[in-house]
Amino acid sequence: MARVTAIIQARIGSKRLRGKILKKIKGKPNILLLLDRLTKSKLIKEIIIAIPNTKENDKLERLLKPKYKVFRGSEDNVLKRYFFCAKKYSIKNILRITSDCPLIDHRIIDKIGKIYLSGNYDYVSNIENRSFPDGMDMEFFSFKTLKKAYLNSLSNCDKEHVTKYILRSDKFKKYNYSDKINYSNLRITLDRIEDFNLINKIFYNFKNNDFSYMDIINFYKKNKKIFHSNIEHTNKKEHNDLGIEQQTWQRAKKYISGGNMLFSKRPDVFLPNNWPSYYKKAKGCKIQSLSKKQYFDFSIMGIGTNILGYANKEVDSAVNKAVQEGNMSTLNCPEEVQLAERLIKLHPWANQVRFARSGGEANAISIRIARAYTGKSKIAFCGYHGWHDWYLAANLETNKNLNEHLLPGLKTAGVNKNLKGSIYPFKYNDFNGLKKLIKKNKDIGIIKMEVIRNDQPKNNFLKKVRKLASEKNIVLIFDECTSGFRQTFGGIHKIYKVEPDIMMLGKALGNGYAITAVLGKKQIMESIKKTFISSTFWTERIGSVAALKTLEIMERTKSWEYITNLGKFIKRKWKSLAKKHKLNIKITGIDALCTFTFKSRYHQVYKTFITQEMLKKRILATTTIYVSISHNKKILKKYLNVLDKLFSIISRCEKGDDIYRYLISETSTTNFSRLN
């Protein structure tokens, strides 16, 4: 029978309860109680304790030898310690357990271990979708899996916690074992004195130290007060250690699925465990956090919604008046008619408009209309177009179809499987690729794309796409939810003199108020009559009122010219600083929505470092800036001065310095990786 080797992660040092694993229970150091319990497992063939090579852990080694094998390695890089331990002893199958879990039950180990040893999975644990108490944690994985984690883990967090990379990666076949009854609210791990007191009581309750997990649960049912006092004390202490923003985020993760409604605003995208996350006030390009700290926003400006800056006085005044006069009624608001006329005037190729409140909705509406018009369901697409089924269906064929358009390896759970084969990706500026795709799939009735995201169109790409669509009787849809109003007054396609059949506008249209528009040619838009597109809150008044006033201000201030010129200035400064510090960066995006990326394997780490250090200077920043008219060269000076210093440090790191020693948190995650 195949078996596993248990590698126990242990050290004397502990921030909260020093020497915790040596504290005696029933006259015996609790780590030895853990090891005694593990020896009862039928699947564990050998136990090795991996401890730091620091002097203070010599005492621990003397305690463990000669009964157990001891491996000495890095204290902080626990992943490295684990890897070289497994490599030295030629371990094929690994069980990872931490020494602060003395109550782990070998019966559970054997049950979960059999699932792993079946050979169907690279990684099996009980820590995802947790049902077991904290302190009953176990992870099974192969040496091959551990090696991949070791070679690909870059962040301090990955190195400290060993399996973080495995847990977030889609490169492994993973399985989580959940018990029938959820006791994840219980805490039986050893971290604080309150934990030790509880674990001590549990051991003393049983004459034999080989009691089971269910014995512990039955003890809990009869002594809930003992457990709850421990949980409440620990939770209260940990809660108090967090700032109000992190406290709020922890509450959010508990009560809101996913924590919030938008990937791009999740703290992990910016600075895990250290990002302010929540705001109290926003005005111009300044944000006040819940803790009343003031920040300049040199990042995403409401994900590109606020070209006029936060809380524009004129827009807010118009909205306030609309609220006072009634935002919603049985009758329709006249402002939506005025807005439709205004948008058609800006885009004379279009004849009719439909309004919604989000970019995803607008994209879904455009697809419904186009399908109704052509009678064809299949779509060729390029770029990012929202979360709806029609779009995510691209990954039903292969989970790589959206890799360069949205999130690499994006899962399709919940997407109608019957949509498989209905949507096909093509690359921006690859006209021949699109042409071949259309030729192969003659029933494609829609080409849907962002006009521009990062790269400029080459070799008359947009005009070629337009001509191809016309020749094949395909509806051409331009998604300008992001690009609209940033380089021209209206859709950016006006610059390239290419007219679509349908276009969406959003984000900046309402300057922070929810409003999106679908514009199209009459003969196509009239297809709405053949189908059903309707929603109660698409008829509210605020969105239309905000859009009308926003358009008025944009036209008066020529906002698109201002933000474009300022964006060009920022790009020049980025380029100059990179040259000064001999850094290789790539600058992409339209001028008013620009990004730079380090050409380095540590690019994501450097991005995290910049966010971290900017935050110390009360600046919200990543490597992307959405420019607004509330930004100016004067307030950018502070940002650029800080960036100059950070580029200097990054330059040293490219020459051999360790960037990880500068980080206070794990590396930020990526959210959207788009093709064009």
Q: How would you sum up this structure, described in words?
A:
The chain has 676 residues and is α/β, with parallel strands linked by helices. It has 3 domains: 4-225, Alpha-Beta Complex (Spore Coat Polysaccharide Biosynthesis Protein SpsA, Chain A); 263-308 and 560-662, Aspartate Aminotransferase, domain 1 (Alpha-Beta Complex); 313-556, 3-Layer(aba) Sandwich (Aspartate Aminotransferase, domain 2), CATH 3.40.640. The protein has 26 helices and 23 strands.
List keywords for this structure.
676 residues; alpha/beta; Spore Coat Polysaccharide Biosynthesis Protein SpsA, Chain A; Aspartate Aminotransferase, domain 1; 3 domains; 7-stranded mixed sheet
Backbone CA Rg? 29 Å
| CATH architecture label of the largest domain | 3-Layer(aba) Sandwich
What is the strand arrangement across the widest sheet?
5-4-1-6-8-7-9
**Residues in helix, %:** 40-55%
State the end-to-end CA separation. Answer: 53 Å
Q: Hey, roughly how much beta strand do the residues contain?
A: 15-25%
- Reading off the top of the CATH hierarchy, the class of the largest domain is best stated as Alpha Beta
* Poorly predicted runs of 5 or more residues: 672-676
Largest sheet report: 7 strands, mixed
Which word captures the global form? elongated
**Number of distinct beta strands:** 23
Task: Enter the CATH topology name of the largest domain.
Answer: Aspartate Aminotransferase, domain 2
Overall pLDDT level = 92
CATH superfamily of the largest domain: Type I PLP-dependent aspartate aminotransferase-like (Major domain)
